[in-house]
Write a structure and sequence with these properties.
Length: 133
């Protein structure tokens, strides 16, 4: 996708004109980090799937794990979105303030493209009518 002006405008138009939850990963999250006002227009129950660096670009660096978790939770609540923060122990925050942890990952998951697979699985489930929650 890239983060050039055309991509930024395309994502802006999509966010501003879509009512259905969307799933954003990688460069889409980097574009949000550069254009923070776009977050205000994300459809409710949209899902962001950042890894740690993408999350830090969006929210700024955290001094510790707990502060990062608090930021994640607060953003989910404020914007009514779901955040799947990918890592060794992924955390999933919901708009109601709930946070879930997935500790079943392994080093093989830290491979280029595995985040794309996760995004595809989430989109596939949403397309079948599953709730984002």
């Amino acid at each position: 996708m890239g983060v050039n002006k055309d991509s930024q405008n395309g994502l802006k138009n999509l966010i501003y004109n879509t009512k259905q939850p969307m799933v954003l990963d990688a460069d889409a999250i980097n574009i949000l980090a550069e254009n923070k006002t776009y977050v205000d227009y994300l459809p409710q129950n949209s899902i962001l799937t950042p890894h740690l660096k993408e999350f830090e670009r969006l929210t700024g660096k955290s001094t510790n794990w707990f502060e990062r978790l608090q930021k994640q939770r607060e953003i989910s609540q404020k914007y009514h979105i779901i955040i799947v923060l990918k890592g060794a122990h992924s955390s999933i925050s919901l708009p109601d303030g709930s946070v879930f942890f997935n500790s079943t990952g392994n080093p093989g998951m830290a491979t280029g493209g595995s985040g794309d697979v996760l995004t595809g699985v989430i989109v596939g489930l949403l397309a079948q009518g599953y709730s984002p929650h």
